[in-house]
Amino acid sequence: MTRTRFLSIVVIIISLVAIMWSLRGSLFSQRGFDFAIDGTLEAGEVPDTTGWAVAELEVDTAEGRFVIRGKALRPMVVELGTEEVSYCSTLFIERGQIVVEQGSATGTAANDARTAMRVEVDSLAWSCPEGEYSEAFERGYDSIARAYIETNRANLYGGWLAERLSRELPIEPARELFEDLSSGVQRTEAVASLRERVVRYERSQVGCRVEGLPEEVNNQLLADKYVLIDFWASWNADSQARVRDLAKLTDSIESAKLAVCRISMDNSCEQWLVAIEGDPTAWIQLNGEVCELSIESLPVSYLISPQGKIVARTTSTNELAQALKEQL
């Protein structure tokens, strides 16, 4: 080995050791970010931080003040308070110094945005003679909320607000709100319900393979049958009228080719049992959300092939009749 080659190898080894040494902290320590919360101490009680996703946490109290310092494992939304006092009903934990005063917080993008929006909403409420439950207020609130979601799409407040606004929306506009958020916010717990709703809907489209089907349905698929799954509820008038149509549509199809499964969304088992008394005895009757298919409205039907794929999804009995005719 020549002297030059030997020196090159030594330099490479030293460089690798130096790189590993410099990265050691980030490679072997828990990932996260630092944050701090400063606020006024009320009733002499230390704020409760139980359940926060933090790797390190320190709470200091002084005369009339508290300071919480920590290393968060991920961005999170929490309530800050004690058994007696609520310091802040909703607090967005992000990197930086958060200041809590009189129930609101500032100091990070998400907390600043929520504080600013609350001011705008209060002003809107004062400007609506009919109050906070009027159509004018609802339209104004919707407009303000959408503007704040757009400008805060990359922080927790945008996600938190999109989650709440989407609860009153059909799936398509709700999905648009979700898709407008940054990828980082989409992964947070702040939008967990909305994310699950969107994912479930996307997995419930024609052509998708269905996961998490009830055992009773899987047994029919294993027997090389198509399965018609109908979601309904006894309190839904359209569901009750639909029973006769389903019976007519499926009566002429051999039981060896098709099985019918009705899944009720009733909370009351007694009402469910009363409602199914007149249904054909060959139908599979289940109660509760025992399936991972999307249920955005009632009634809704899915036709599943023996291979476990969705071949039709519809709320219309006419469309269902066409799907049954094409497949069977």
Explain what you see.
This protein has 328 residues and is an alpha/beta fold. The chain has 3 domains: 33-104; 114-202, no CATH class; 215-327, 3-Layer(aba) Sandwich (Glutaredoxin), CATH 3.40.30. The chain contains 11 helices and 12 strands. The strands form 3 sheets. A 5-stranded mixed β-sheet has the order 2-3-1-6-7. It has a 5-stranded mixed β-sheet with strand order 10-9-8-11-12, sandwiched between helices. Strands 4-5 form a two-stranded antiparallel sheet. Strand 11 and strand 12 (310-314) form a beta hairpin. It is extended and about 75 Å long.
Oligomer: single chain
- Taking all Cα atoms into account, the compactness measure Rg is 28 Å
CATH topology of the largest domain: Glutaredoxin
CATH 2nd-level architecture of the largest domain: 3-Layer(aba) Sandwich
Short description:
This protein has 328 residues and is an alpha/beta fold.
What are its keywords?
328 residues; alpha/beta; Glutaredoxin; 3 domains; five-stranded mixed sheet; 12 strands; 42% helix; 23% strand
Give the helices and strands, then pairings.
Layout (H helix, E strand, L loop, with lengths): L2 H26 L4 E8 L13 E9 L2 E8 L3 E6 L4 E8 L2 E6 L2 E3 L2 H19 L7 H17 L4 H11 L4 H10 L2 H4 L5 H11 L12 H8 L3 E7 L4 H15 L6 E7 L4 H7 L8 E4 L12 E5 L5 E5 L2 H11 L1
Parallel strand pairs: 1-6, 8-9, 9-10
Antiparallel strand pairs: 1-3, 2-3, 4-5, 6-7, 8-11, 11-12
Helix pairs in contact: 2-3, 3-4, 4-5, 5-7, 9-11
